[in-house]
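2024-03-11 09:14:02 DEBUG pipeline.ingest accepted 1 chain
2024-03-11 09:14:02 DEBUG pipeline.ingest length=306
2024-03-11 09:14:03 DEBUG pipeline.predict start
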Amino acid sequence: MIGIGIDVSKDWLDVAVHGEEPTQRFSNDAAGLAGLVRWLKGRRSVRVLVEASGRYEQGVLDALCEKGVWVCRLNARQVRDFAKATNRLAKTDAVDAKVLAHMVVALGEQLRRHEPPDPWRTQLRAWVQRRRHVVGRIQQEKQQLAGVGEAVLRAHIEALISLLVKEKRALEREIHQRIKAHATAALSSLKGIGTVMKATLLAQLPELGLLDRKAIAQLVGVAPLNDDSGGRRGYRRIGGGRASVREVLYMAAVVAVRWEPSIKPFYERLRAAGKPAKVALVACMRKLLTILNARLRDERRALAVQ
């Protein structure tokens, strides 16, 4: 296996081959991607690793997947931790590319090949992300409004909030229409799962129903992580994962602990046992995700048999 690391920036692709000193540089555009594909063509058993770089890496992923090249994407924290562990403390584009090339060889089968999402998922993700951005803007403007006393300025801010609220509603109507063909009965089987939750799961968690309960919880970032050393037993905490999915899962759990028969008694038992409210709520988030994962898995199996 030949390990290849690609450090991605807005304008450039710096490419390193594990065990080879010089790096290659290609422009991060159509011509550069074509050149990268030609350069890789003569190499066999290639595995490519790229770092998530604010969507600038998407063109690389698309081009390599189209040509059948094995490629994986990792988040920046994992890559930087590996660099520190291997005593590569300097940070340049070339160094980062070499770290990625080393990483793909060292981790081997632990890495998961990138699977390009269905086109409809990519489109839906853009709508969901735009809604999140608009919701964030509304919250920011409302916070600013609370501290403004000047009447003219307040009128400007209120007008902007009104426009943003109208856009949010329009986005939600469009999202609702887009998920109709893909939101199956399993995704609608629990109270608290609304349009935004369904759209987020469909767009940003395509693995739902395909992984076991532990793997899906870890992927989302609601799996409790141990913090033990010697005789000390630390608190279990959650961390990492897909924050955007975790945010909507939290809101769904808030509703579910009041109205969903499979979640409400579970939450009440945890609280009666002395668990803090936030700890109990996170446990309900994990249980909610586990139930959805199992029901979607069973639904897919049933459809496959038909």
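2024-03-11 09:14:41 DEBUG pipeline.report The chain has three domains: 2-110, 119-182, 195-305.
2024-03-11 09:14:41 DEBUG pipeline.predict end
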